[in-house]
Amino acid sequence: MPESRMIAWNDGTWTHAPESVVIAEHLDATAVEGSDAWRRTAYGFIHDSEHALLAPLAVGEAMEVSFRAPWDGQFDQAGVFVRIDDEHWVKTGVEYADDHLGLGAVVTAGSSDWSVGHVDDWRDSEITVRVSRWADALIVRARADDGDWRLVRVAPFDGDSSAFAGPFLAAPTRAGLTVRFTRWERSAADTDLH
């Protein structure tokens, strides 16, 4: 991967403040019960209460976030959030649902979609999610610990709009989800899909 630069935890701005935040070398964030991000599709509701710590993401840049969490509450989630506005955003990472840890992405352009696959063997790992911004796309990769990178999603994404990205977490069904974010870095975007 290209040379990277660390982003300081206090260089970002929260979309919605978590229940609590403790900053040391890492960042421990505790989600508010009921927090989530979703728009309309299948469920008929709009949730706009995720906790995302965002900094600018330009075309040609990538952002990586590493984290750990206990993964025991229905729909507990964490990863990377990329936002243009209320109607255009991507959340990608892992979500615990129906007794499985899923790796996937929600891509929203007016309405949300969701792609996901089980990664139960990642449950006790440090997970890293990487997003690369191209002129017309967002490329999402992820890995557990120092494992191989896995392509998660190639999604359309407007290269002419200002976008912001960074760590996110949400806990739609419970109080007490604390995610430990261990790394937040910026680098050049990946140049290849394969």
From TrEMBL:
Gene3D superfamilies: 2.60.120.200. Pfam families: DUF1349. It comes from the Bacteria. PANTHER family: REGULATION OF ENOLASE PROTEIN 1 (PTHR35332:SF2). This is DUF1349 domain-containing protein.
